[in-house]
Amino acid sequence: MALGDLLLVTLVFLLGYWLRHYLLAPALSEALGMADDFRLSFNSYLLSGTIMGVIEVVMLQAFGVYRQTYGLAHLEEMAWILRSSFMAVVVTFAFTFATRQLYFSRFVLLFAFPAASLAVAIWHWLYRRMARKRSRRKQMSIRAAIVGTGPTACDLARFMTDRSPLPYTLAGFVRPSTSTEERLAEDAVETPDIIGWALESSVEELIIADPTMDRAEVARLIYECERHDLAYKLVADVFALVSLTTRVVHLGGTTMIESVPPPLSGSRLLVKRAVDLLIAVPLTLILLPAGLLITLAIVIDTGLPVFYRQRRLGRDNRPFTILKFRSMRVGADRERKQLEDRNEASGPLFKIRRDPRVTRVGRFLRKWSLDELPQLLNVLSGQMSLVGPRPPLPEEVEHYSQRQLKRLRALPGITGVWQVSGRSELGFDDMVKLDLYYVDNWSIWMDLSIMLLTLPAVVSSRGAY
């Protein structure tokens, strides 16, 4: 993977050189009278590109991108790739300045940052996909067992089977003797000797996912795992009780969980707002012709109105009116009660894959997420952000638990973790988990990662209906 990264970054750098000196040079010379200077040879760019590739690989290694597991693989990895590419560009720029390459094209460096990030991300995705298939074909998957039979254990089993970046084979569920949680896994094994059963079943990793287990039993199970060199993971159920972002600290040899201010607070809110405006203003102008064409199509298909306005809740439960291009027939809201029995979404959400209220133009708009474009006006007015949790309806929030209300601490977004992870294919609980992850782990790199991942999510149309 690292060798591929080095090669890709160098090739992207040389592609920038070709674009600047052979494709853009004549146009810039004719339009702006800019002289194209070729006093720096191809070899100079090859050396700088190789340096950028080496620095990027070093950064990726230092940031742990080559590790095997992530909480949200595609998103976390993309954020670290962006950081690494940025650092590599900065160091390469410093190298060209220190070696007095005064005629070095800055366009190549500007081009290399997003292009190298995207190329490396695609390569990593392909590599991990091929490695996963190869592992399954050669039966090299990790054989794991889950201690627990409740909702957490079943959720983990589904993730490990369907979406885990690592190939897992589930050996089964084990119900601990001190468990008091609901039994959802009917085929669970009940045995007082969990470690003995795991060793007999050739289990390589034990996942302890029962929050109701007696502390003494958990401690004994962990000790037995360590004694028999059996890998284990322990679900940190205590975090479900914590309302703010936390970190692990040590006080006099005692491990503790300490609350820290959430990432989206103070001056970081200003940084996020500045990024929103820097991107939303030019994006609105660029997409204006597309908006006019969509307006014309809606009027021809079903007439006025063009926009659909709906009351949503934003940051800190503040209501606002969200704007969309109308994709349903007029009066569709009044028909919802008649369609309740066809609802395919979980929790308070309402979604129908083939909603009869959707118009011909609306079906196209929804497939490519074009109905969301007017929300750029919500972003410009400060009611929404480019990236954030999905803005809920007031009636949805009435059913929220105290923990689920935490997702309203951030400005809602046009796109977010939910949108780039499957959209309507994910249930309500999954959506809330992803939004809470975003609120607790926000960074500007995460926002940029989500923006970049939104394009392939839109093109794939996965979960869009």
* Largest sheet, strands/sense/barrel: 5 strands, parallel
The number of domains:
3
Per DSSP E runs of 2 or more residues, the count of β-strands stands at 11
In angstroms, what is the radius of gyration? 26 Å
Beta-strand share of residues: 5-15%
Question: How much is the average pLDDT?
Answer: 84
* Quaternary organization: single chain
Helix content: 40-55%
Low-confidence stretches: none
* Amino-to-carboxy terminus distance: 36 Å
Which geometry do the CA atoms define?
A: globular
Strand order of the largest sheet: 3-2-1-4-5
Structure class: alpha/beta
The number of helices is 13
- Could you give the order of the helices and strands? HHHHEHEEHEHEEEHEEHHEHEHH
Describe the overall structure:
There is one protein chain. By secondary structure, the protein is α/β, with parallel strands linked by helices. The protein has three domains: 2-137, no CATH class; 142-235, 3-Layer(aba) Sandwich (Rossmann fold), CATH 3.40.50; 267-460, no CATH class. Helix content is 49%, strand content 12%. It has 13 helices and eleven strands. The chain has helices spanning 2-32, 42-62, 73-98, 106-137, 151-162, 194-200, 215-227, 267-302, 360-367, 375-380, 394-397, 428-441, 444-460; strands at 142-147, 168-175, 189-190, 205-208, 231-234, 246-251, 254-259, 307-313, 319-325, 385-387, 413-415. The strands form four sheets. The protein has a five-stranded parallel β-sheet, with helices on both faces. Strands 6-7 form a two-stranded antiparallel sheet. α1 runs antiparallel to α4 (106-137), α3 (73-98) packs antiparallel against α4 and α3 crosses α13 (444-460). The longest helix is centred in the middle third of the chain and has 36 residues, at 267-302. It is globular, with a radius of gyration of 26 Å. The two termini are 36 Å apart. The model has no long low-confidence stretch (mean pLDDT 84).
